[in-house]
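Re-running Rieske domain-containing protein to confirm reproducibility after the cluster update. Everything else is unchanged from the original entry.
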Amino acid sequence: MTEKPITDSPMTEKPSRQKPSRRSFLKLVAVTGAAATLGTRGAAQTASSPAKSGDLLVYQDGPRKGQVVKVADLKEGTAVWAQAVDPATKKPRDAVKSGVVIVRLKPSEIKASSQKNAVNGVVAYSDICTHQGCQAKELGSLGQGKGNIICTCHGSIYDPRDNATVLGGPAPRRLPALPLKTDAAGELVAAGEFTGKVGPK
Ligand code: FES
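Result of re-run:
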């Protein structure tokens, strides 16, 4: 139920089921330009990293909110939104920047650039747009947006098959990937930190 079906329009904003506080924060970032302060600690994330190896990926919202995402829950061509949480506390290391969009792809579609971070056809990226910090909350179905992650604030499009490279819109750089692995129960677990800085410069 938290799977986001492919949308009819890559540019149509859908109602969010996320917590108002998170959405409000993201809106504020987009409007005020405060996004410039996000991720200023750089790509080499260590103590303050919003995700670390071993973190569990749990649903952000919906009836499974807080439950760990399993590969078996995911259908090819769909996406779910999750948060990386510390396995000890079950809480995200950062209320905003620990968010990820998880996409299940046909394994044959995954480009070499994404292979090393994928597991069983599943890839995960930061869901914070690198333009002005809105949440990239859609997976498109038409035209250039087909099968791609879309930020509806200003239309940035990222290719989940190719390490979230930018296909369109004003985003200056790709979404950082979160390397994945699975545990014995088939649950998704972070295999490392984000591969780059989360959010805009
Ligand atoms: S914040 Fe501008 S396209 Fe995402």
